[in-house]
Design a protein that fits this description.
Fumarylacetoacetate hydrolase, domain 2; twelve-stranded mixed β-sheet; acetylpyruvate hydrolase activity; 5-carboxymethyl-2-hydroxymuconate delta-isomerase activity; Fumarylacetoacetase-like_C
């Protein structure tokens, strides 16, 4: 089931998408109104997070391409946060900030939480997932390297496009995650190669931090990260979910 968050003439709503028809619901899928068509709505990021939690260095080949070795494999998930102003919608422009010279793409499988998580076990973790979607972890790589913390490098406005919808019926253990720039395949990974799978990530976060309905968790990026330039169209494609596409624009 594809669940969308959208804007139409009545405001912002949730809905279930079947073919080209949208059936209004609440976030959890309870029907709330008459049907409309996909062509009549604008898709929004399918989450309303209080927290955006991201996992870094979660694919061994990505660690290697960033200069790491087998000795650098993490013993537990390495987490960082993105600010809420980083969240953006399918189709929204990615503004190339004037203060960076290295804007990079990082395509990822993302998880949206549907139930409160606190001290859950790995076996319980997936029961609290509302659905899965595509996310683009936009990164100012030069500032990630130079700054004391990753706030500027990871949390600038619009640095987290998410969408186009949630897939509520997906097994996250083995799905293909790809990133294309101007139609050219740049990243091609599988979640079976995650160092820490989704249940491990969620249980680990919940051991010290409460996740609430609507919160967003990015699971890490495969190898193949690289630069973007003004005018580039970048697509994150997650098997079983769909395509998230955004275009890079110049800062004004």
């Amino acid at each position: 089931m594809k669940r969308i968050r959208y804007r139409d003439q009545h405001g912002v709503s949730w809905g279930d998408l079947r073919g080209g028809t949208v059936y209004p619901t609440d976030m959890w899928g309870k029907r709330s109104g008459g049907a409309t068509t996909l062509s009549e709505v604008t898709l929004l990021a399918p989450c309303e997070p209080k927290n955006i939690v991201c996992v870094g260095k979660n694919y061994a080949k990505h660690i290697a391409e960033m200069g790491g070795s087998a000795d650098d494999l993490p013993k537990e998930p390495g987490l960082f946060l993105k600010g809420l102003s980083a969240l953006s919608n399918p189709g929204d422009p990615i503004v190339y900030p004037s203060w960076t010279q290295e804007l990079h793409y990082e395509g990822e499988l993302a998880v949206v939480i549907g139930q409160r998580l606190r001290n859950v076990s790995e076996s319980e973790a997936l029961d609290a997932v509302l659905g899965y979607t595509c996310a683009l972890d936009v990164t100012a790589r030069d500032k990630q390297r130079s700054d004391l913390q990753w706030v500027r490098g990871k949390s600038a406005d619009g640095f987290c496009p998410v969408g186009p919808w949630l897939e509520t019926d997906l097994d996250p253990h083995d799905v293909r995650v790809q990133t294309l720039v101007n139609g050219e395949l740049k990243q091609d990974g599988h979640t079976r190669d995650l160092i820490f799978g989704v249940p491990v990530i969620l249980a680990y976060i919940s051991s010290f931090m409460t996740l609430e309905p609507g919160d967003l968790v990015l699971t890490g990026t495969p190898d193949g990260v690289g630069p973007l330039k003004v005018g580039d169209e970048v697509t994150v494609r997650v098997e079983g979910v769909g395509d998230l596409t955004n275009t890079v624009e110049a800062d004004r």
